[in-house]
Give the backbone structure.
Amino acid sequence: MTANVQKPREFTGRHMLVIILAFFG
């Protein structure tokens, strides 16, 4: 979880979008 915080927010946001899209799909 600490690594996620260090990573850029854009990367996390993109990953979340992919997960949401997959869930809805």
